[in-house]
């Protein structure tokens, strides 16, 4: 549908279906016509690739993705949007809408069944109440996905794209950097949405690395250590990690010596490589 990003047209469609926005489902729909074509262009989709979209809403971004990709599978939780999407996506024959909660979908199976022989990217304006869980699911499931291009709140974008070892970094920054390289593509003002949220947004792109960017002996231990370190980020790593992992301060000191990091450092001062070395040294204590 060509005029779908026109605010008058969006109001007409929503009105004709008697649709009311659900805050609980993070429904802030894009009404700025320049954003979706830009996201579709920058997400890495082309006529040989498949795209997974999460939360198509009324299909503004979906329409643009259908124009550039071979196939689009859009996962939408709100069943009230299905008849709307039937109408707005009617002209495309390369799209499938699945009515489901993305957190409960077996994406590995979906990719095998829907995108056989295609490279796959993800492109979405994410529901903000579950931004991090969705991104973590997409990364941790080690799916055969090339890149994630997602719209998130500006603050989340800053944290996700921060450099590990900087003040802005957090456990999610470490996870993102472990699996991918992140970049901020462009900012989007709050006025670009209906209803307008209280914060601005940004589109980021995570290019998934073929293998994790550092070698760790025990991934579970690495992420448990990182979560403990950032959960009490004002404390020294000696305090936060020893209590999080239940190890003695003496053992932790030995691990720090072997990893070449100071036990008095704070989590946000350590680079990805240093965090990796530290978790390997803790692993070797056992
Ligand atoms: N893509 C549309 C746009 O840009 O205008 C809508 C984006 S809106 C921020 C988020 C969308 O995600 C809504 O359509 C909402 O119903 C849907 N959604 C919320 N939680 C979801 C979930 N767990 N799984 C799939 N879709 C979800």
Determine the number of helices (DSSP H or I, runs of at least 4 residues). Answer: 12
Strand segment count: 9
The ordered string of helix (H) and strand (E) elements is HEHEHEHEHEHEHHEEEHHHH
CATH topology value of the largest domain = Rossmann fold
Major beta sheet, specifics? 7 strands, mixed
Q: Can you give the helix content as a percent range?
A: 40-55%
**CATH superfamily membership of the largest domain, which one?**
Vaccinia Virus protein VP39
- The CATH class designation of the largest domain is Alpha Beta
Number of structural domains: 2
Structural class: alpha/beta
> Ranges with pLDDT <50 over ≥5 residues?
none
Q: Ligands in the structure?
A: S-adenosylmethionine
Q: In order across it, which strands form the biggest sheet?
A: 4-3-2-5-6-9-7
CATH architecture of the largest domain: 3-Layer(aba) Sandwich
3D architecture notes:
The chain has 286 residues and is α/β, with parallel strands linked by helices. The protein has 2 domains: 7-208, Rossmann fold; 219-284, Helicase, Ruva Protein, domain 3, CATH 1.10.8. It is 40% helix and 19% strand. The protein is built from 12 helices and 9 strands. The strands form 2 sheets. It has a 7-stranded mixed beta sheet, sandwiched between helices. Strands 1-8 form a two-stranded antiparallel sheet. Helix 6 (131-140) links the parallel strand 5 and strand 6 (145-153). The structure holds S-adenosylmethionine. S-adenosylmethionine binds next to strand 1, helix 3 and strand 3.
């Amino acid at each position: 549908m060509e005029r779908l990003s026109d605010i008058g047209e969006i109001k007409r469609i929503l009105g004709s279906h008697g649709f009311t926005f659900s805050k609980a489902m993070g429904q802030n729909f894009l009404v700025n016509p320049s954003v979706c074509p830009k996201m579709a262009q920058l997400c890495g989709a082309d006529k040989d690739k498949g795209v997974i979209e999460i939360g198509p809403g009324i299909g503004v971004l979906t329409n643009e993705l259908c124009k550039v990709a071979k196939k689009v599978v859009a996962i939408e939780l709100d069943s009230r949007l299905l008849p709307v999407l039937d109408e707005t996506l009617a002209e495309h024959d390369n799209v499938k809408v699945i009515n489901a909660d993305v957190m409960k979908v077996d994406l590995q199976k979906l990719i095998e069944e829907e995108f056989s022989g295609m490279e796959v990217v993800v492109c979405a304006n994410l529901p903000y109440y579950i931004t991090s869980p969705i991104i973590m699911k997409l990364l941790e499931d080690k799916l055969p996905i090339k890149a994630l291009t997602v719209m998130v709140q500006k603050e989340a974008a800053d944290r996700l794209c921060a450099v590990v070892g900087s003040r802005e970094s957090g456990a999610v920054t470490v996870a993102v950097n472990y699996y991918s390289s992140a970049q901020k593509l462009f900012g989007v003002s709050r006025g670009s949405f209906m209803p307008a949220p209280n914060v601005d947004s940004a589109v980021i792109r995570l290019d998934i690395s073929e293998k994790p960017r550092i070698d760790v002996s025990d991934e579970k231990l690495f992420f448990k250590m990182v979560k403990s370190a950032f959960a009490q980020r004002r404390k020294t790593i000696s305090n936060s990690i020893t209590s999080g992992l239940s190890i003695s301060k003496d053992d932790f000191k030995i691990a720090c010596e072997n990893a070449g990091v100071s036990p008095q450092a704070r989590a946000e001062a350590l680079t990805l490589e240093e965090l990796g070395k530290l978790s390997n040294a803790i692993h070797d204590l056992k």
